[in-house]
């Protein structure tokens, strides 16, 4: 048999099986992009650049469409009027949507997750209210100062690496306890390496068994055993810091010792994976915009006055005097919001004129929602002033802003994230002068889960002011 006959025969067999066994869509189901290969579907095209794929599919198929990829049906909702159903409908479920990913990334069994997640979510939400977040701010500022001083009085490097080296240990210490922060340069380096591998492979790791991702699986095991030690430390040092318990200690009172490291790893990932790239984008955008930089620096200098640049105190009151810096943070979050968030359809769900069948994964892209010109004119531009209309003091965001999700599973760390980023950006710009040596990189189109990483270098020179 020659090659052409072989290829034709294989194609005919594939089409035959596809027609025979391919799941037929309900007549009221949304348009479906299923590719030619049964089960695998459009996984290849979709996986190459998911964010671009969503945009092209929306233009071609309309506001609601389904993508079949690797045995899953992903149904995207892109109209703001459908977001309410996504966040609040009883016909969709958060826990069922994320359970498999949680199993693959943190080795938490299905039963344990369904049993324990509601308690964990309640504890985390309760500990990270705006009031409780405020109590973490003084300690966080000390940590930022200490680790920023480790950068030395001048130097150069990749902006995202500099940010990581300061934020990882500071946030870990603040949320998990000082005894649990990497305490020397070597362990810090090792932690950074393992966490970066884990974070970068999180999307594939959430979908594939460990045997396909050896290095990633090793990093996961390393982090789990680190968390096991941290959980032990957390129990031995109860009530030792700030006259109160850390978030990890609060979690320890709510779930069994056996499960603490696994939930601790998820919490650690959730608290770092989105906040650190957003900090990178916020600083890169400010440095690339002379006008924004000038307004931000005027507010920072006026609020912090002539403090010692090595032990600068940034209080919540100081932050209130720097509203423009907060607008810059919100604008960076808007521009680099998570690629997609998800719910599982558990009962037929009506959206527009369609019925979405149970079993579908319902997908909403905050990244694309924030490019809707009705809510955000000139959506690709970095325009901090657009946040003037939001009542941020009362924690009210702009209409159409969904970076933190919504409904009962909305990000419980959102107040902490905004406070942390606001403080970090004000502090680093007060302490150091920066000279960018590269233009702002483009966001990588590769990932769907979480906020976007830079797709190229962003080298900076810095010097203590
Ligand atoms: C700019 C930074 C951040 C962004 C953009 C972000 C965004 C999100 C989003 C979109 C979700 C899913 C919400 C949904 O499906 O409706 C989420 C969940 C979560 N986030 Fe954040 N987040 C950030 C920072 C943080 C921080 C700093 C923490 C912890 C201190 C945190 C803790 C969590 C947790 C624990 C969940 C899971 C909630 C659950 O299981 O119900 N996040 N986040």
TrEMBL record:
Q: Which cofactor(s) does the record list?
A: heme
Q: What is its main location?
A: endoplasmic reticulum
Q: Which GO terms describe its cellular component?
A: endoplasmic reticulum membrane
Q: Where are the transmembrane segments?
A: 266-288
Which annotated residues bind substrate?
274
Subcellular location per the Swiss-Prot or TrEMBL entry: Endoplasmic reticulum membrane
Cite the entry's keywords alphabetically. Answer: Endoplasmic reticulum, Heme, Iron, Lipid metabolism, Membrane, Metal-binding, Oxidoreductase, Steroid metabolism, Transmembrane, Transmembrane helix
The cross-references to InterPro entries, in alphabetical order and at most eight, read:
CYP450_sterol_14alpha_dmase (IPR050529), Cyt_P450 (IPR001128), Cyt_P450_CYP7A1-type (IPR024204), Cyt_P450_E_grp-IV (IPR002403), Cyt_P450_sf (IPR036396)
Q: Which GO terms describe its biological process?
A: bile acid biosynthetic process; cholesterol homeostasis
Instruction: Name the pathway.
Output: Lipid metabolism; bile acid biosynthesis
- Give a Pfam family name: p450
Q: Where along this sequence does the record place binding of heme?
A: 411
Gene3D superfamilies, alphabetically?
Answer: Cytochrome P450
A molecular function (GO) held by this record is: iron ion binding
Q: Does the keyword Ligase apply?
A: no
> Which family does the similarity line name?
Belongs to the cytochrome P450 family.
Q: State the PANTHER family in the record.
A: 24-HYDROXYCHOLESTEROL 7-ALPHA-HYDROXYLASE, CYTOCHROME P450 FAMILY 7
What is the protein name given in its UniProt record?
24-hydroxycholesterol 7-alpha-hydroxylase
State the species of origin: Cirrhinus molitorella
């Amino acid at each position: 048999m020659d090659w052409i006959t072989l290829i034709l025969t294989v194609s005919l067999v594939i089409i035959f099986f596809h027609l025979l066994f391919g799941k037929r869509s309900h007549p009221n189901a949304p348009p479906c992009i299923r590719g030619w290969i049964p089960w695998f579907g459009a996984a290849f095209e979709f996986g190459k650049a998911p964010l671009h794929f969503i945009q092209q599919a929306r233009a071609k198929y309309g506001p609601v469409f389904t993508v079949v990829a690797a045995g899953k049906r992903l149904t995207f909702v892109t109209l703001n009027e459908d977001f309410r159903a996504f966040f609040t409908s009883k016909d969709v479920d958060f826990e069922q949507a994320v359970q498999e990913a949680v199993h693959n990334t943190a080795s938490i069994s299905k039963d344990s997750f369904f049993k324990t997640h509601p308690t964990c979510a309640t504890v985390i939400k309760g500990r990270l209210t705006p009031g409780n977040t405020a109590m973490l701010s003084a300690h966080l500022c000390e940590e930022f100062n200490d680790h920023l001083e480790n950068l030395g009085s001048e130097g150069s490097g990749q902006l995202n690496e500099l940010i990581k080296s300061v934020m990882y240990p500071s946030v870990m210490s603040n949320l998990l306890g000082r005894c649990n922060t990497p305490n020397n340069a070597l362990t810090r380096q090792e932690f950074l390496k393992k966490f970066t591998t884990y974070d970068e492979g999180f999307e594939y790791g959430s979908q594939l068994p460990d045997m396909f991702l050896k290095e990633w699986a090793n990093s996961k095991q390393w982090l789990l055993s680190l968390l096991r030690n941290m959980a032990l430390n957390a129990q031995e040092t109860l009530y030792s810091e700030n006259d109160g318990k850390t978030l990890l200690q609060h979690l320890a009172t709510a779930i069994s010792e056996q499960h603490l490291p696994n939930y601790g790893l998820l919490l650690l990932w959730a608290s770092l994976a989105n906040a650190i790239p957003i900090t990178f984008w916020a600083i890169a955008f400010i440095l690339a915009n002379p006008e924004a930089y000038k307004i931000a620096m005027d507010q920072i200098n006026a609020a912090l006055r002539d403090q010692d640049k090595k032990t600068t105190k940034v209080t919540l009151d100081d932050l209130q005097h720097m509203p423009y810096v907060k607008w810059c943070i919100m604008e960076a979050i808007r521009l680099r919001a998570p690629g997609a968030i998800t719910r599982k359809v558990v009962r037929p769900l009506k959206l527009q004129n369609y019925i979405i069948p149970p079993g579908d994964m319902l997908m909403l892209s905050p990244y694309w929602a924030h490019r809707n010109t009705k809510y955000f004119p000139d959506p690709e531009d970095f325009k901090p002033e657009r946040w003037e209309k939001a009542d941020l003091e009362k924690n009210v965001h702009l209409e159409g802003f969904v970076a933190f999700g919504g409904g009962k599973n909305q990000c419980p760390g959102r107040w902490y994230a905004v406070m942390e980023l606001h403080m970090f950006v004000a502090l680093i710009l007060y302490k150091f002068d920066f000279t960018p040596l590269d233009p702002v990189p483009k966001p990588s189109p590769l990932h769907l889960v979480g906020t976007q990483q830079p797709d190229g270098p962003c080298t900076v020179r810095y010097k203590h002011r």
